[in-house]
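User:
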Amino acid sequence: MRRLAFILLLLFVAATLRGQTNRVNLVGKVSFVSSVNVYVKFNSTSGISAGDTLFIQMGEQLKPALKVNNLSSTSCVCTALSDENLQADHLIIARTREEPLKHEAKAANVKVAEIITEEPTLDSIVTVSATIGKRKQDISGSLSMVSYSDLSNTEGGNSQRFRYTLSLDAENIGGSGLSAETYISFRHKAGEWAEVQDNIFSALKIYSLAFRYDFTKSVSVSLGRRINQHLVNIGAMDGVQAEYSLGKFSLGAAAGFRPDYADYSFNSQLFQYGGYAAYNTRNGAKSTESSLAFMQQMNGSNTDRRFIYFQHSNSLIKNIYLLGSVEADLYKLENDQPKSTFDLTGFYFSMRYRLNSNFSISGSYDARKNVMYYETYKTFVDRIVETEMRQGFRLQASYRFTKDILFGVSSGYRFLKSDPHPSENVNGYLTYTRIPGINMTGTLSGTYLRSAFMTGVIGGANLSREFAEGKFQAGFGYRYVGYKLPESSMDIKQNIADLSLSVLLRKLLLSVNYEGTFEKSDIYNRIYAQARIRF
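Assistant: Predicted structure:
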């Protein structure tokens, strides 16, 4: 009996150990987002099944974000489980079950059979430890080619613009601490190549081009043009940036040059230097992040600007997210004499409250300067609307009636000393995915805007549909725009029609969009064609 009990005990322990499995997190990236589906790319979908839930990282917790509908050996076709705005390259996590031994073997890049059959030696332990500690190389990027045609019956005639963009992010090159990043755009207009020859930087825009070396997990140094997340307010910098982290604290210093304000080229007259301190905490889903930065900016040998910048965000209260920033100048010239000061030059505060998975509301106050874009293909009206709606008070809310019906509304108010009267705007939309009978996604939207520079209304509707499991997507829409420009006494009404078609072939995306604007006597046709390959 004792022998039988001992054997049964061994069998029970073996079965228990065999049944114990680890949760293994597989990390992938969003490769493409359509109006209906979200496509996620993994190195391998082994262990993932249709119907599984995929997650995104929120603090130290995982939040359900996607449901797997179909999958191949490396990709998943998913539908959204929340209203999170997932963009390309957003990290997605799949939780799969693996036996501990297999999981450890994969982490060490060693065959399972070798671990099972061979007695571990000192050499094998050292080899496995070195493999586990080695940094993993991760290189990704994209190359895109865009053609933008503007055709009209006006005196302005026709124009053709081209843009080529390279984006590359290389982490831990060759398993080392060296990383690189770049985002470069080259754009030119047909028939105006002489301008490019006179100044290459009228066409070439280098938004980032930098190398970073991580000496340890705590110490890193970068060289080149890049934007520091703790110094976002100053934009890109050409120079050296260093950071030291100790637990929850981070200290950094930067010295270099601001890009030229006219063509974004290198300008040795715009020297700047400064530093920052940051403090981060995380406790489950709750987190805080605070940073204080100082910057001295020169123009030649003269002080151009000296300012401090403070930013804070936290999610300490359940379902509430807060973000705020303050910027103040510490230097000014008064009667041509330098003087220390403390002038508030920028302020931003926002709060988002999520009552449940279906309803959220947010509000913000923005007193920052408007951003200057060096390249844009937006229409004249779109640019004015965007500028007028950015600053001031803003209130937004969204509600998901069902899984397929989402409604949102936003309103803004601004009153600056430079404005003759306050600016007001209201915008709303209603989206219905998978409309019964036609299996299409439709959106109705409307905007009202009244400012010192224009008054107008915009109303529109569009429909889109996917084919072949999302590899093809087609859509069409219509917008009515009526606006007045008091300064020029212009009263313009526009009917705008648009058509779009996109094809996704593995890592290659081909798309073409047509937009026709019809006024009383003028017709504007815009054709936007793009080819983008990811690697």
